[in-house]
Amino acid sequence: MAAQHDVEVFFDGECPLCAREIRMLRRLDRAGRIRFTDIAAPEFDAASIGSTQEALMRRIQGRLSDGTWIEGVEVFRRLYGAVGFGALVAMSRLPGVRQALDFGYERFAANRLRLTGRCSEACATPG
Questions:
Q1: Cβ(57)–Cβ(15) under 8 Å?
Q2: Which domain holds residue 102?
Q3: From 15, 93, 109, 121, which residue has the greatest number of CB atoms within 10 Å?
Q4: How many Cα atoms sit within 13 Å of 60 on the Cβ side?
């Protein structure tokens, strides 16, 4: 059976910034091209997709309809492309812009829990 979505996004529904962006994408996804999977939902089991909760929490992950895994800024590119922002996606791939976005996302992902007020002992561990 072929997947009916273009991309599945594995997002942290307990992250206020993440949840806001996902709400916006849900509104924009009129064609149903995105499958949204909340990794913070009690019923979610990372092992069922061959991953761990820790790996999924480290940075945003996505899976294309053919089963290919993507992560980081590429997930956002696919999400925004799916809702019709192809021009924005194309600009995000330009030399210099691509590297700046990748760098910025990596810094955000490394500090996401701290930035959203959800830090625990894990944040105090040097990484």
A1: no
A2: 7-124
A3: 15
A4: 30
Report CA-CA distances (Å) from 7 to 10, 44, 87. Answer: 10, 18, 18
Q: What is the DSSP letter of 125?
A: S
Number of domains forming the structure of the chain: 1
Give, for 124, the enclosing helix (H) or strand (E). helix 121-124
Using CA atoms in the order 80, 81, 82, 83, what is the torsion angle rounded to 10 degrees? 60
- Those residues whose C-beta lies under 8 Å from the C-beta of residue 118, and which sit 6 or more positions away, are 14, 15
pLDDT computed for residue 17 by the predictor = 87
- Is 2 part of any domain? no
CA dihedral 44, 45, 48, 49 (to 10 degrees): 70
